[in-house]
Design goal:
By secondary structure, the protein is α/β, with parallel strands linked by helices. The protein contains 10 helices and 8 strands.
Length: 294
């Protein structure tokens, strides 16, 4: 049952400043409202775990003292591991491809980098593609993981701007361990008093985005139940409302698994922005549901 947010028990538990220096463009990126999500985290917890890392917007906003961040997508995690272990290499990956774009033409170099990625998926190519693709919608073909998004109309940020963001993000995530792992494996390592934030692919809108990777929501609910029984706090972002509230996205949630259900306004849909090519998105705002076990 959804309870209106204005009830006293739905008050935010902490004040969190916005953090808007996006490192990666990624579908479902929560950079604009990550501080609202973090404001509903427990005031006190032990380690922080994020098993569907994506763009890391919530991680970067929280800036945890002790964190574990993971994703099953290997090229993506190559980027995050480079941020932690080899930040100068990360800057060089982006600068080299950006310089090629300046000399050879944006569309031509973008397609060349995309072809390089599709022949051998890797973090260095994916980094540039994420910043240069149309609408920030990094999408992959279901059958084989082929990256299919065309080049964006915008000019990607400069290497100096990106290098600055790398330095900022490395400082904010200095206490985080990054690794490639399935969400079930990562969540099993959480202990009593820890906090897990889950931001999985959304079943209503993101079936084209994770390529050949498999994801089942029922398996995630089972993992959350195990964590809840251990005394681990779990927060889950999931499908809420589309088309500016006119469509409610149905998700079959096990009864009793969550105790709070909050709607978070996400603004215009990134996927609709891509599909509608710059048309008016006034009627295509979306809201996420933030489900809490505490």
């Amino acid at each position: 049952m959804t309870v209106p947010r204005f009830l006293p028990e739905f008050a935010a538990q902490r004040m969190v400043a916005p953090f808007k220096k996006q490192l990666l463009k990624w579908i479902g990126n929560k950079q604009r409202f990550a501080n609202e999500i973090v404001s509903f985290f427990p005031k006190n917890f032990q380690a922080y775990h994020e098993p569907f890392l994506g763009s890391g917007a919530v991680l970067g906003t929280l800036c945890p003292d002790n964190g574990f961040a993971s994703d099953v997508f290997t090229p993506l995690m190559e980027i995050w591991k480079a941020l932690h272990d080899r930040p100068e290499a990360l800057k060089r990956w982006y600068r080299d491809r950006w310089n090629r774009m300046e000399l050879g033409g944006k569309n031509e170099i973008y397609e060349a980098v995309k072809a390089s990625y599709n022949s051998a998926p890797n973090g260095a190519d994916l980094l540039f593609l994420s910043r240069a693709c149309y609408g920030g919608v990094v999408r992959f073909r279901k059958a084989d993981g082929y990256m299919s998004t065309p080049c964006g109309v915008h000019r990607p940020i400069s290497p100096d701007n990106f290098a600055y963001r790398v330095d900022v993000w490395r400082t904010r995530t200095k206490n985080v361990t990054f690794r490639t792992a399935d969400f079930r494996e990562a969540m099993l390592e959480a202990r009593k008093g820890d906090l897990i934030y889950c931001d999985p692919p959304y079943s209503d809108s993101q079936t084209i985005l994770y390529g050949a990777q498999e994801f089942r929501l029922d398996q995630l609910f089972s993992a959350i139940e195990l964590c809840r029984r251990k005394g681990v706090y779990v927060a889950l972002s999931i499908d809420g409302r589309k088309d500016s509230g006119q469509k409610a996205c149905f998700v079959d949630i096990p009864p009793g698994l969550f105790v709070r259900d909050i709607f978070v306004n996400c603004g215009p849909s990134m996927l609709k922005r891509f599909q509608m090519a710059g048309k008016n998105l006034e009627n295509h705002h979306v809201s996420d549901r933030l489900l809490l076990t505490y």
